[in-house]
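Section 3.1: Structural characterization of target chains.
Under the original work plan, the team committed to producing a structural model for every single-chain target entering the pipeline before any wet-lab resources were allocated. The record below documents one such target. The sequence was received from the expression subgroup and is listed exactly as submitted; it comprises 354 residues.
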Amino acid sequence: MPAITRRTLLGSALGAAALTGAATRNAPGAAAVERPSIIGTATWGAEPAREPITMVGPPRTIVVHHTASANVTDVSQQAAYDIARQIQQWHFARGWADTGQHFTVSRGGFVLEGRHRTLEGLDGGQRQFPLGAHSLSQNRTALGIENQGTYTSALPPAAQWQSLVRLCAFLCQTYALAPSAIQGHRTFDSTDCPGDAFFAELPRLRTDVAALLGGGGGTTQRPWPVLRPGATGFRVTCAQRLLRQAGHEAPTGGVFDDPTTAAVKAFQTSRSLDPDGVVGRLTWEVPLALTRRNGDRGEGVRAVQTALTARGASVTVDGIFGSSTQAAVERFQDAQGLTVDGVVGLDTWSRLLA
């Protein structure tokens, strides 16, 4: 199997937003979700952890990842063991004590314990889990699930998807989490994980999990990116333009530098938020991401146009919300399954920036 070429994980920008979801058990009268088969670390040949594993909990979130490794056609149990061992070695090479995530779901649908003591926490009745190393902003509060493969444009095969649904449902049942607690890695940290195609399917994942639990999906959260000093790219440019629209001095070069940090802190202070300099869900929804519509002008419109062009639309970044910009917004909304009204509110903003 080729070596993992996973995105640079955890070395970039992270966040403040923790999603709890309304705690829920199965709906009245619903059957309990059966515990899925989970292959323990000893069975797949894990090396011992290189330092003691601390137990924390209970979790508030389930964070979904992809391994960004090859979409292999070998879906055997042995292939599942191979990827689990490879991930552990890759994480050892990063100086971590053990595999970073709690579970791995192979392309063949095999579910493996990732980090030592995960099954101890799952089966111990204390609602605990091991302190993870899969998302810097969520390690103490979230269970991490790696899904073997790269899902930027492809989707997980059926066996993998079904195992993921069953695993998530059992975790929600065991730890009293709502399906809305299931989130993609990029919601919290500056990363492409779990891939554009997979990330777009997370609402379906939550729906499928809710169905197994007997309904009651809880309140969904918008998929905002989390930006902090050092981040780069169009999302940073959009945040900078929105800061300027709100009256704060910020560059527009797409680099989260010191002046941008100062502008973020000033904006947060003006809105009675903790001035931590990190642009997460609370900062976006205060809102930094103000509603933009046909007839508007200024930096906020340039932010919309910047995001649209990054998503492949052909629009001019001129700060004028005219018919061409509205048409591009409507096409994007239609492709995302949103209400097609040509207005860039929080739901559209979050999808543009996700």
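Strands lie at 55-56, 61-66, 103-105, 111-113, 129-130, 142-147, 182-184.
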